[in-house]
Hints:
4-stranded antiparallel beta sheet, Jelly Rolls, globular, 7 helices, alpha+beta, single chain, 16 strands, 8-stranded mixed beta sheet
Amino acid sequence: MSVAISATSVSSAFDSIPIIDIGHASTPKERAALARQIRDACMSVGFFYVKNHGIPEETIDEALSAMKAYFSLPTETKMKLFHKQGTHFRGYEPLLDSNIDLANRGDLYEGFVISREELVPKEGDDKKPDGDTAFSGNLWPSEPAGFREAFVNYYHAAFGVGKVLHRLFALALDLPETYFDGKLKRDPIMRGLHYPPQTGSEDDRIVGIGAHSDFECFTILWQEPGVQALQILNSEKQWINATPIPGTLVINIGDLLSRWTNDIFRSTVHRVINRSGVCRYSIAQFMGADPHVEVEPIPSCVSAERQAKYETINAGEHVRKRLREMYQHSITQ
């Protein structure tokens, strides 16, 4: 297929990140044109910005205000919802709780993690899709007022963007645009993040979050304008700034979709180093496959010139394993 053959000619020594306008995708012709742009970005960079994504500015502003108010609370108050008290990775993540790059000493961020929830529960909504128990059980703080509503509203708005992108990814892979519909995880995790400014020396091995690639299919990231911290790594081992652009979201391919596409789509290493002198806030939703989906290289990504690289794996087990690895290491030296 053309996807696999053309992959061999794409250079990964990028020095910028493409911007793609997804606001016009109502006709098959428009979606096909968008899919071509997305294919190029996923093969050459693994990251791209999207504009005209449809999330209301008011929804973003309310989520940002809720995060700022929550993360300013005393640590002992936030720790009442410490995420390791349960088995679902939901709730509050304190500073240095994770260490995603073992060459470092810890990740200098705090987060609040949720999964899908309706503001007004629907009948049967307490039953998670397909019995998955690793992605359930949200915890909510009693303060600030409106925190739950702000987070849930943003969650559903971002999930809507994810559904649009899933179909565009399918078209980009020469597949029917509904190919991923039955495989889409319906309750991905979302993490609100606070990165305090880093004041330590360059060699103290504590950064906002260490160099890593994401676990799932793709990530939808909103980052606060005016605060540069996210960087992505090209093939020349150069760190390229993912500068916040007002009105955009950052989309990056994760390990599961890279594996699914036989490495046609790149899962690019990235990190956060916040030396801006001010706090940095962001919101990441991690779009993935339904936990019971068996992932193997998609036929359109396999050819005589590009043999299948991976055996079949279970999507849910893949993510749970990566989460355990991320959180089992804390600062020790």
